[in-house]
Amino acid sequence: ARMRVAVVGAGVSGLTATKCCLDEGLEPTCFEQSQDIGGLWRYTEHIEASRPSLYPSVISNTSKEMSAFSDFPYPEDFPVFLPNARLLDYLRRYAKRFGLQEHIKLGTTVVSVRKRPDFATTGQWDVVTETDGKQTSHIFDAVMVCSGNFSEPSLPLHCFAGIERFQGQYFHSRQYKHPDVFQGKRVLVVGMGNSGVDIAVEASRVAAKVTICTSRGAWVLSRVFDHGYPWDMVFNTRLMSLIRNILPGPLSRGLINYRVNQWFKHENYGLQPEKRYFLPVLNDDLPSYILTGRITIKPGVKEFKENSVVFHNCPEEEPIDIVVFCTGYNVSFPFLEEAVVKVENKHASLYKYVFPTHLQKPTLAVLGLIKPLGAIMPVTEMQARWVTRVFKGRRANISSSMYQNAVQGGHILFGLSYDEVLKTDCLVYMDELASFIGTKPSVLGLLCRDPQLALTIFFGPCTPYQYRLGGPGRWDGARQAILTQWDRTLKPTRTRVPASSSSLCPSLLTVVGFLLLLAAVVFGF
């Protein structure tokens, strides 16, 4: 009998989880509470309960080559950074290409997931679902939780003194759809994540005045990086990762500090982050909007008055008509028992951010809770590839002794809050999971057999196709996909001048030369 797996949610993580189950010969059933796939990326004009909510202008923060599933590159004519409709289109193509549709049950909510009485021996789960008000119970051998973490808004009003006497309008960023609510108003945006900055920029085109207040500050990166290349294709390379990880901490931070301040000096714009953690905000307009006075940056809120707000260390009041709280989301799993995934002050104890640490059998996994510096797609896909092999009891298995040691060692607490951003480099994490299942590319091994590929893998962007070169789940198109990644990146923008293939990819020689220079600069600095 094939192992039956319940997948909760049909967004990015749920789709790739379903596909990985099929690849491993498991039998997935994917439950999606809404009437369609796509999760976060499916825009709806009205806000649906317990579903993520987008505003129409959302564009991906990571470039298409870095955001692809590892055996399914984006079409070459897709733009480099994807408007939400394009990303949804890609997810639909993925579902179609791998025949996922027939395994997805739409309009079906997972009500509860409970251990069966004989869990200690079988590792099985009782799953109750609801469709059109009718409940059904099922027995599954394993469960993959792919319900995401952008559904339950975090709005700690008790932290904002005087909010109850504020006469104006206020709402959480989840409620935001169109900037016309800000027409002619004085707007305060609380919080400086990606949504906060996006909303402030959009508001400032129609509002009388926009202020962002942030107690922490933030690094701001533009999608358009050195020489106009996408930021993540420059930043997330094996070479850069190696440099970041071998340099001593202060030096590594100094390098990052230098890099993020190249575009504009954060201190001069009131943005210098307090702590040294590094999860940047991506926005192409913010510095120019600050420079042209459309947006002002202030410290955190001290208290609200009837029609105004007072900030810390600022004596004068600022008149305000409307407040947007961009205060993020809580992680919640309403269908699980508290004991399964303990979320305490926004931390969950998960081995490698995936397996709850105190289950006798590793038959439940949580996918996509991680916030990488980079794209989520390849990371959750790698998690799914690992998890499905653990379910099958392949050599990727978590041997119970190692699992127990990890649990006792206590090194599995993972901050799910933005304050405790995942400290590991996304690339290091991907490599670790890849080595569990035997798909980690060996640059040195390739150097003798296929030097062009080896150099592209090491010096070029760490695109997901690298994890399909060998091992289980090997894909024949991987090498070609890696060697043509720059062609697909440049094709959508080189629309006036015919592309000569030679200049399409920065020639290997210049890349190597530039990187040696960079290394010299870094180590000399």
UniProtKB/TrEMBL annotation:
<keyword id="KW-1133">Transmembrane helix</keyword>
<dbReference type="GO" id="GO:0050661">
    <property type="term" value="F:NADP binding"/>
</dbReference>
<dbReference type="GO" id="GO:0005789">
    <property type="term" value="C:endoplasmic reticulum membrane"/>
</dbReference>
<keyword id="KW-0472">Membrane</keyword>
<protein>
    <recommendedName>
        <fullName>Flavin-containing monooxygenase 1</fullName>
        <ecNumber>1.14.13.148</ecNumber>
        <ecNumber>1.14.13.8</ecNumber>
    </recommendedName>
</protein>
<dbReference type="InterPro" id="IPR036188">
    <property type="entry name" value="FAD/NAD-bd_sf"/>
</dbReference>
<keyword id="KW-0274">FAD</keyword>
<dbReference type="GO" id="GO:0034899">
    <property type="term" value="F:trimethylamine monooxygenase activity"/>
</dbReference>
<keyword id="KW-0560">Oxidoreductase</keyword>
<keyword id="KW-0256">Endoplasmic reticulum</keyword>
<dbReference type="InterPro" id="IPR002253">
    <property type="entry name" value="Flavin_mOase_1"/>
</dbReference>
<feature type="transmembrane region" description="Helical">
    <location>
        <begin position="506"/>
        <end position="524"/>
    </location>
</feature>
<keyword id="KW-0285">Flavoprotein</keyword>
<keyword id="KW-0812">Transmembrane</keyword>
<comment type="similarity">
    <text>Belongs to the FMO family.</text>
</comment>
<dbReference type="InterPro" id="IPR050346">
    <property type="entry name" value="FMO-like"/>
</dbReference>
<dbReference type="InterPro" id="IPR000960">
    <property type="entry name" value="Flavin_mOase"/>
</dbReference>
<dbReference type="Pfam" id="PF00743">
    <property type="entry name" value="FMO-like"/>
</dbReference>
<comment type="function">
    <text>Broad spectrum monooxygenase that catalyzes the oxygenation of a wide variety of nitrogen- and sulfur-containing compounds including xenobiotics. Catalyzes the S-oxygenation of hypotaurine to produce taurine, an organic osmolyte involved in cell volume regulation as well as a variety of cytoprotective and developmental processes.</text>
</comment>
<keyword id="KW-0521">NADP</keyword>
<dbReference type="InterPro" id="IPR020946">
    <property type="entry name" value="Flavin_mOase-like"/>
</dbReference>
<dbReference type="GO" id="GO:0004499">
    <property type="term" value="F:N,N-dimethylaniline monooxygenase activity"/>
</dbReference>
<dbReference type="GO" id="GO:0050660">
    <property type="term" value="F:flavin adenine dinucleotide binding"/>
</dbReference>
<keyword id="KW-0503">Monooxygenase</keyword>
